[in-house]
Every structure is written in C-alpha cells, then in structure tokens.
Design brief:
166 residues, mainly alpha, 2 helices, elongated
Amino acid sequence: MQPTEATRPATADQSRRLKDELSESMSFSSQMKKEDEELSVKALSAFKAKEDEIERKKMEIRERVLAQLGRVEDETKRLALIREELEGFADPMRKEVTLIRKKIDSLDKEIKPLGNTVQKKEVEYKDALEAFNEKNKEKVELITKLQEVTSLSSHFSLAFFFLVFE
C-alpha cells in the first residue's frame, strides 16, 4: 500500500500543479480577452475618431469649394458687365442698337398679354353687340306691331263710332 500512497501524493501534487497551471492559463486567457477587448475598443474609437476627422475635413473642403464657386459666379457676372462695357466703347452705335432691341423685346413681352386681352374683349364686344342688335330688332318689331294694332284699333273705333251714330 505504500507504493500507492507514494504515488498518491505525487498525483495529488501533480493534480495541484495541474490545477494551478489551469487556473493560471484561465486567468491568462481571461486577461488576454480583456486586453483584446480593450484593443478592440481602442481600435474602434480610433477608427471613429478618424472617420469624424475625415467627415470634418470633407465639410471644410465642401464649404471652401462652395465659397470659391460663389466667388467664381460673381466674377463671371462682373466679367460679363465689363465685356458689355468694352463692346460699348468699341462701337457706341452697336450699344445703342442693343439697348433698343432689349427695349423692343421687353415691350413685346408686355404687348403679348395685352393683345390676348384685346382679342378676348373684342369677342365679348361682338357677342354683346349681336345680343344688343337682336334685342333692338325685336323691340322695333314690337313697336311696329303696336303701331299697327293701335292704328287698327283707332280705325275700328272710328268705324264703330260712325256705325253707332248713323
């Protein structure tokens, strides 16, 4: 029995060592997991910070580009005015012709709706005139009929008068 007892403490010793190694291994593993998580969190926050920085830079660039576009548009308008002035200096008659054409175009735009209004009013006038003439004609016919009736009535009255007093 002694050899088994001797082996027992050895196995117990081995068992303790295995337990210690296992617990060290587990604590090392959990420590590694924590370190991995920390690294993941750090990497994620670094990634988010980088994304935010990229987005901020994109917005800054967009604002600068829009501001530049605004300046370009202003300068384009200014150049167009300068070009018109230069053309005016080169040929004063041409400038006057251009101004007159612009006025004519402007008046054309004003005249078009007025012409449409005139046409509508002419149609209304013609319709009203036609209705007026029809009513006037009907009135004349009625007056003529009234005169005939009154004329016949006065002839019948005279005839009746002569018949009664005869």
